[in-house]
């Protein structure tokens, strides 16, 4: 899952949210450098990623991108799932997604001192460009795909990924529908046991 899902699956707990969003920038034993509740968010993020990667719907969804993007297919699926979450009327209306996004940015502002440097540098762009809300729009997904390519070691083309997303939109949406309720339940139960 990408930033919107990790924020949503922090269940309105600010320290968990901070850990959940910085987790990709925290390697190995660096985990022990963080306050306990932030550590729980980092651990929750890792559990969410493992569950997502192992789920049958995600494995099938990755096959859409795999011929062109191999290992990076998972990153494109993460962005895709955030798009469908942003447009899931059982989770968000347009107004509630906008309010949720602002609440996340405001909450994260209080944790700037624990951000790893790469996340600290990225966070102002996330806020200014309102990444969380813009997962709702296809143009936001196109930019997010370009971001995946920009951060990758060897990819150069994001347009093929966006074309695959457009061509397989309904199929990808069904993978999300088959997957997300199970992830929500898993994340909630995991957090209760941390």
Explained architecture:
The chain is built from eleven helices and no strands. It is globular, with a radius of gyration of 16 Å. The two termini are 20 Å apart. It has one domain (3-192). The protein has 194 residues and is an all-alpha fold. 73% of the residues lie in helices and 0% in strands. The chain has helices at 3-8, 14-22, 36-54, 56-69, 73-86, 94-109, 117-128, 131-134, 138-151, 159-167, 169-192. This is DUF479 domain-containing protein. It holds the Pfam family ACP_PD. GO terms for molecular function: [acyl-carrier-protein] phosphodiesterase activity.
Task: Produce a short descriptive summary.
This protein has helices at 3-8, 14-22, 36-54, 56-69, 73-86, 94-109, 117-128, 131-134, 138-151, 159-167, 169-192. The protein contains 11 helices and no strands.
Could you tell me the mean pLDDT? 96
How much strand content do the residues show? Answer: under 5%
Count of discrete structural domains: 1
Number of strands: 0
> How would you name the oligomeric state of the polypeptide chains in this document?
single chain
Classify the secondary structure makeup into a structural class.
mainly alpha
What can be said about the biggest beta sheet?
A: none
Helix content: over 70%
Tally the helices: what do you get? 11
Distance between the termini: 20 Å
Shape estimate: globular
Low confidence ranges: none
Rg estimate, integer Å: 16 Å
Order of helices and strands: HHHHHHHHHHH
InterPro entries: ACP_PD
GO molecular function: [acyl-carrier-protein] phosphodiesterase activity
Keywords: Hydrolase, Lipid biosynthesis, Lipid metabolism
Organism: Niastella caeni
